[in-house]
């Protein structure tokens, strides 16, 4: 029998998203956000939910753009740091030893060292409660060549992205392939 845990923000896993913005002075900033994910196929979109108190919130509202970087397992310390301090107080890029790169398509930066980046223009904003959801249309996807597979697409086992455990507040890596989507379940089709 299942036990009720109450209404909580528990979902396993959640992505670790590095949201890049320029603030009102043009200073690049990145924050660690776990509340987000792909939300539309056409146009391709990603949603991130942020509290109004964050430095990134005001930057997205002002600049109408953001980037989303995906870090690899070996960047867990830098990723966590981006969620520990505020860009109002420190230059996160400098402290973490990251290089700010201006997006070619949107008014937002990303870290050159992050192997996978989405460049997004703000499409919609939805006030939910404590958080505001920002829906960004993905204008381009950039990936380092060493995380691409033979088919030219990102290989999750080469990328080694972090995932977040919302219950225990921990970072984890990705496991092995269990089966091909839209294929393995066909065994149950009558």
TrEMBL record:
The UniProt record lists the keyword Flavoprotein: yes
Swiss-Prot/TrEMBL keywords: Flavoprotein
InterPro entries to which the protein is assigned, alphabetical: Flavin_Rdtase-like_dom (IPR002563), Flavoredoxin (IPR052174), Split_barrel_FMN-bd (IPR012349)
Domain Flavin reductase like: 9-164
One GO molecular-function entry: FMN binding
Cofactor: FMN
Family to which the UniProt record says this protein belongs: Belongs to the flavoredoxin family.
Protein name: Flavoredoxin
Organism: Geotalea daltonii (strain DSM 22248 / JCM 15807 / FRC-32)
